[in-house]
Design brief:
Elements lengths: L2 H15 L1 H15 L23 H9 L12 E7 L4 E6 L3 E6 L5 E6 L2 H9 L5 H41 L1
Antiparallel strand pairs: 1-2, 2-3, 3-4
Length: 172
């Protein structure tokens, strides 16, 4: 089988195989491009009263526990704390997907909202579904996308090469 026929067949079949994972990656990637511009995707970073962090950890936990939507009862319910000293704010990410932003000096709740960017990122890389899906569907689909890119370049280049050969043969 000639390389051009084999490449076309691989390009067509590969495109069908990766269609669904690629649509998920494209749509979630588009949403992630707007995460800083959309309060719905990711809560905007607030500013505290002063650009410093003096809040004791016990008060951080107490302040987050006071927000019922966060679902926090103990430190086990908190995924991470993002300290922003320049803004004087602590961004507390909860295991529930909720984000609570606290003033780093007073402990006042500045913002409380679901953080959707985390699950959109998990959807984007395939880990939202199941680890088996991530490694058996999304990884091969990304590798096949690289093959589609290469075969697409080859299929784009091939007619140009043929035309160039015909022109040089006609001159020659």
């Amino acid at each position: 089988m000639k390389a051009s026929k084999w490449t076309r067949k691989l390009h067509r079949v590969g495109a069908v195989i990766i269609a669904l994972p690629l649509i998920v990656v494209i749509l979630s990637g588009l949403l992630l491009n707007f995460k800083k511009q959309s309060d719905w995707i990711q809560p905007p970073t607030q500013s505290g009263v002063r650009a410093e962090l003096k809040l004791p950890w016990s008060e951080v936990l107490a302040a987050v526990r006071a927000v019922p939507e966060s679902g926090v009862q103990s430190w086990d319910d908190i995924d991470r704390v993002d300290a922003r000293p320049g803004n004087g704010v602590l961004k507390v990410r909860c295991q529930s997907g909720w984000e609570v932003q606290l003033d780093g000096t007073t402990g006042a709740v500045l913002w409380s909202q679901e953080r959707r960017s985390d699950w959109i990122e998990a959807l984007h890389d395939g880990s939202w579904f199941h680890p088996v899906v991530k490694w058996s569907v999304f990884l091969p689909a990304s590798l096949l996308l690289g093959v589609l890119w290469a075969t697409g370049l080859y299929l784009w280049w091939l007619p140009r090469r043929v035309r160039r050969k015909r022109r040089s043969a006609a001159r020659g």
